[in-house]
Amino acid sequence: MSNEDRDLPESSASRRDSLERQARRRVGMKMGFYIHALVFVLVNVGLFLLNLSVGGTRWAHFPAFGWALGLAIHGIVVFARLQGHRLREAMYQRELARLRRSAS
């Protein structure tokens, strides 16, 4: 939605629908990360147990480190994007208030 569109009056029903879509999308992003984290823990615990039971060279930490990097990047993308939306909205509100003060 462009800044010009935000200045136009919007019906309460369509605004509510827009907020619900946005909330569902944000919850979906967070749940995707949490599921990724859960699978990471379960699989890597299984790999460590397998490595311990078979013995020999310790290798289970190698896939864990690589996957941890991917999980960290996933988390940064999800939570930075959510923070970015808040920052952008706050900047928009400040700029809109500034423009309204200067116009009056």
Written account of the structure:
The chain is mostly helical. It has one domain. Helix content is 88%, strand content 0%. It has helices at 3-7, 12-54, 61-103. The two termini are 26 Å apart. Residues 1-5 have low confidence and may be disordered.
Query: Helical content, roughly?
Result: over 70%
Round the mean pLDDT to the nearest integer and report it.
Answer: 88
What general outline do the C-alpha atoms trace? elongated
Largest sheet: none
Kindly state the number of beta strands. 0
Spatial gap, N to C terminus:
26 Å
Order of helices and strands: HHH
SS class: mainly alpha
Please report the number of helical segments.
Answer: 3
Strand content: under 5%
Low-confidence stretches: 1-5
SSE layout and pairing:
Elements: H1 3-7, H2 12-54, H3 61-103
Search tags:
104 residues; mainly alpha; 88% helix; disordered N terminus
Sum this structure up briefly.
The chain has 104 residues and is mainly alpha-helical.
